[in-house]
Write a structure and sequence with these properties.
single chain, 142 residues, alpha/beta, Nucleotidyltransferase, domain 5, 5-stranded mixed beta sheet, 5 helices
Length: 142
């Protein structure tokens, strides 16, 4: 089990789940895994909250989703259940919110890891939460 004072996790759910473990404003570790590994990490880590990317079905994509079992939605459901059981907040963000933190911006901030696109999406969500929800970090918006 990972221990720390202000641990929290940001998640990009999907077939491959991207995740980043944070202590306050610092990324401790990132990874990409299946949902079971992600669930185990959250259950075994003393996190204060979870930030995740919500799934939003758009009308333009609805027809193409006929017959889909919505694995991402199922992952989010289990994630919310684990958080509820642990008594911790589970904070959803829209997919668009991560786009402020481009690869170039992540590189300048020293948090970019090549070859881990899903993990980097979780970092983007974590940074968005810190910058725009908590206002705990400042970023140049240009």
């Amino acid at each position: 089990m990972v221990e720390g004072k202000d641990l929290w996790i940001a998640v990009d759910p999907g077939k491959t789940c991207g995740w980043s473990l944070w202590e306050g404003k610092k990324v401790l570790k990132t990874g990409q895994s299946n949902s079971l590994t992600l669930f185990r990490l959250i259950e075994e880590t003393d996190v204060k909250f979870v930030v995740y990317e919500r799934f939003i079905l758009r009308a333009s994509a609805a027809k193409a989703m006929i017959g889909n079992e919505f694995g991402t939605v199922q992952t989010i459901g289990v994630l919310k259940y684990i958080c509820k059981r642990k008594g911790i907040p589970c904070i959803g963000q829209t997919p668009a919110q991560r786009t402020f933190f481009t690869n170039d911006r992540l590189k300048v901030m020293g948090v970019y890891e090549k070859g881990k696109p899903h993990a980097m999406d979780s970092v983007r969500h974590g940074l968005y939460y810190l910058a725009f929800t908590k206002k705990a970090i400042s970023v140049d918006e240009n």
